[in-house]
């Protein structure tokens, strides 16, 4: 995001956070990708666990495809549904936890996590 700041002179604010003061479901995603690209898996997970989950799922799916080749469409759809539901659960749990900590405990997690 620093290159965006250098070009435009500002970062990209979250509209949801600006309007409500709460974290959006994707809050921390950009920082998670940035940490992952730097090799910091722990910080990537702390910023937003979906990013690391998605990378691991894609990695194992590619290995599975390379080992087993093409599968039946039904088997792939069944596994995809489970993986998507797990990803949605991760997003929901992360969103609820971060906003719980912000509202109930008064702890703003994203600035604490550097």
SSE blueprint and pairings:
Blueprint (H helix, E strand, L loop, with lengths): L1 H7 L6 H6 L8 H9 L3 H7 L1 H20 L4 H31 L5 H4 L2
What does the model show?
The chain has one domain. About 75% of the residues lie in helices and about 0% in strands. It contains seven helices and no strands. Keywords: Membrane, Transmembrane, Transmembrane helix.
Helical fraction? over 70%
The count of helical stretches stands at 7
The tally of strands reads 0
**What is the CA-based Rg, rounded?**
17 Å
Order of helices and strands: HHHHHHH
Mean pLDDT: 83
Main pleated sheet = none
Give the CA-based shape: elongated
How many separate structural domains? 1
Strand content: under 5%
